[in-house]
Amino acid sequence: MKLSEIETPAVxxxxxxxxxxxxxxxxxxxxxxxxxxxxxxxHKSPIIARRQLDLGAVGLTVAKVGEAEVMMTAAPDDLLVAxxxxxxxxxxxxxxxxxNTRITVAVDSVVAAHQLxxxxxxxxxxxxxxxxxxxxxxxxxxxxxxxxAFTRSVLRLPHLRYEGVAMYPGHIKxxxxxxxxxxxxxxxxxxxxxxxxxxAGLKPPIVxxxxxxxxxxxxxxxALNEIRPGTYVFNDRNTLELGSCAMKDCAATVLCTVxxxxxxxxxxxxxxxxxxxxxxxxxxxxxxxxxxxxAPEAIFTKLMEEHxxxxxxxxxxxxxxxxxxxxxxxxxxxxxxxxEQVYGVRNGVVEExxxxxxxxxxx
Amino acid sequence: MKLSEIETPAVxxxxxxxxxxxxxxxxxxxxxxxxxxxxxxxHKSPIIARRQLDLGAVGLTVAKVGEAEVMMTAAPDDLLVAxxxxxxxxxxxxxxxxxNTRITVAVDSVVAAHQLxxxxxxxxxxxxxxxxxxxxxxxxxxxxxxxxAFTRSVLRLPHLRYEGVAMYPGHIKxxxxxxxxxxxxxxxxxxxxxxxxxxAGLKPPIVxxxxxxxxxxxxxxxALNEIRPGTYVFNDRNTLELGSCAMKDCAATVLCTVxxxxxxxxxxxxxxxxxxxxxxxxxxxxxxxxxxxxAPEAIFTKLMEEHxxxxxxxxxxxxxxxxxxxxxxxxxxxxxxxxEQVYGVRNGVVEExxxxxxxxxxx
Lengths: 363, 363
What we know:
Strand content of chain A: 15-25%
Largest interface: A-B, 63 and 64 residues
Number of helices of chain A: 10
CATH class of the largest domain in chain A: Alpha Beta
CATH superfamily of the largest domain in chain A: Alanine racemase
Oligomer: homodimer
Number of strands of chain A: 17
Largest sheet of chain A: 9 strands, mixed
Order of helices and strands of chain A: EHEHEHEHEHEHEHEEHEEHEEEEHEE
Shape of chain A: globular
Distance between the termini of chain A: 36 Å
């Protein structure tokens, strides 16, 4: 199948680029003796997860139990749910998986740890716990000053195995000077955290962090020994704008068709917010909803559910109803969540088609 | 099943409110002799579409062929694809449906009309066409001044049945004085359009318009004889803020669980952009990503994929990890697209659960 035969809108992945990205990060982790436990939220596909494991990943990371269930088909030896698992039914489902792989959960409340401990006891399992610590994003995680007391409270509960600490430094952006300063601060803060825990007899075996934007600076955070990047497999306009990759490293685009040229100076694409999500750039720049690969002077100004509005006033060429265009999306993870399948392409030919098995797994 | 037993995040629909909304618009259409061809993009479920048909809707509206395929299980006598259908494969799929129901397509280009005519001829079908005319939204649709010439060009093509004109006045917001002025302007513009076509011997049998925000003003647009509202079945924060419904008319909410309270003055919900979409309010007001029904003083400030950030500084009560909250979403159509199923609730008890069969049908 050729690109032109794909029904649009559709996610197209350049397999050469994807494979290079996978290999590159696997090598980086190996070179710096970092455990790689990639977050599967980006690709949401066991078939890609399996490739990550085959390249040396020690396990997989997911956010939701539903994603964990899907990822079992990749047969990971180790699975981290980097999200508080709250509620009896979810914990029942998680315990059903614990018979088949080594499960760890990141927790930031005694309530969550208690529920996890109860479920593990009931099912006669032992479950790993990572203490989630907030290093500045102000999302989840206990304050570093409370880490020792929190860890003690959690480890008093039976059937939990102390695995260490987890953090998500998603607030660090590397596109300017402030990025390296933030990395240095993070390194100091993580070292203090580990020192505090060690002094209390709670030396963390795993110190887990690392998101894609600051990925290649992980080895500058001395105490870190694990990274959980997700986006690196494809990259997107966010990682590009954040200075963490080049255009040649962007593997995924959305193939669209021009469906209307009725308004002068404007084309309508058959992909809107249901195709691209409404995510703007993470840098905050008002730069539209994507970049047309072959017409960077076009501006993707607006989205409705099924309509992408592109201002083509500045383009030198004309666009015709029926022609295809490729668009680099702002945020690839949420785009994958909107698509049933992905077309893997090499040299302009569709080589494989895979389902986004974990899309929409919210629970 | 009680609300508290639902695994979150989940869409919950109050069946009493939904049924009242369905009946109310059915009666409005009947009272004003307007054909009702509801857009199924909001509920994306044949089970709800069937109820609309049973209440007197003349047919159904969809945007994509994939949605049309799903809606066939509601057994509509009539199906409008209010979107340009471009490309051989999509048209093949559409023609497969044309044997089972009366198909109409809205077109705004001769290219689209040509492709449709060719497909219809090949399959020995006759397909209805509505000429899409732009009445001010500047999305799709030919300019009113070009409507006569465009209609002539389209009707020269074989196997197409002239059904009339379609428009989508989605730019009209009814929350202030400018709304009624816009309705009056629209009424004059539509009358001129119909007069022009009639004078050219092209009197449109159907004059189709109407979105939910201006729904109850449709009878003020004299020449209109069909409406295609979608959102009215559930309503949402947009229709509420646009002044088109009251809180008591909002049938759908997202049930979430508080999963972290680690940051002072903040709670984290288990629903982020994968649950709510990133859609802000259509009015442009910076009022967050939803409203907590039982804590309107809370501010839903930020979304990440799986995390909803809610500022609870102004709340008088405390929130605990594990408790459920209900959130009125900004834009219900895109929320439905993100969920596998919907819980229909009456008197606090889950009465039915239905699948969102047409979610993710992008092609």
